[in-house]
C-alpha cells in the first residue's frame, strides 16, 4: 500500500461509527445502509456517507440488491490493514523497549 492509501485507510477506520459498521458487517456477513442505521445512533444518510468512505478505501464492496445496495467487508483489504497495524504495534513495542533499556541504564549510572 502506498502512503496515501495508508493515510486514507487509517482515516477511514479512525472513526468509531465506521469501526462499529465494520463490526456489524463482519458479524452479519453483509448489510444495507438501512439495516445498519437501525443498529447505529446515526441516520441512514449518515450511514450511507460512512459506507462511501469505507468503499473508497476498499474495506467494503457493494452489490445492488433490489432498491438497496448490499455491503460486504473486503476480507483481503481488512487483513492487510490488520497486518499493517500489527507491524506498527511491533515497531512501537521495540522502540519502547529500547527507551526502557536506556532509562534503566541511566538510572543505574546515577545510582553508582
From TrEMBL:
CDD domains referenced in this protein's UniProt entry, alphabetically: HTH_ARSR (cd00090)
One Pfam family, short name: HTH_20
Entry GO MF terms: DNA-binding transcription factor activity
PROSITE patterns xref list: HTH_ARSR_2
Annotated InterPro entries: ArsR-like_HTH (IPR011991), HTH_ArsR_DNA-bd_dom (IPR001845), WH-like_DNA-bd_sf (IPR036388), WH_DNA-bd_sf (IPR036390)
Domain HTH arsR-type: 1-93
Highest taxon above the source species: Bacteria
The protein, known as: Helix-turn-helix transcriptional regulator
Organism: Rhodococcus spelaei
Amino acid at each position: 500500500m502506498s502512503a496515501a492509501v495508508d493515510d486514507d485507510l487509517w482515516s477511514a477506520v479512525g472513526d468509531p461509527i465506521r469501526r462499529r459498521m465494520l463490526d456489524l458487517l463482519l458479524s452479519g456477513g453483509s448489510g444495507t445502509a438501512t439495516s445498519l442505521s437501525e443498529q447505529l445512533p446515526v441516520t441512514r444518510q449518515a450511514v450511507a456517507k460512512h459506507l462511501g468512505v469505507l468503499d473508497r478505501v476498499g474495506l467494503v464492496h457493494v452489490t445492488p440488491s433490489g432498491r438497496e445496495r448490499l455491503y460486504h467487508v473486503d476480507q483481503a483489504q481488512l487483513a492487510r490493514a490488520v497486518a499493517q497495524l500489527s507491524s506498527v504495534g511491533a515497531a512501537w513495542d521495540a522502540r519502547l523497549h529500547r527507551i526502557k533499556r536506556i532509562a534503566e541504564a541511566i538510572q543505574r549510572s546515577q545510582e553508582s
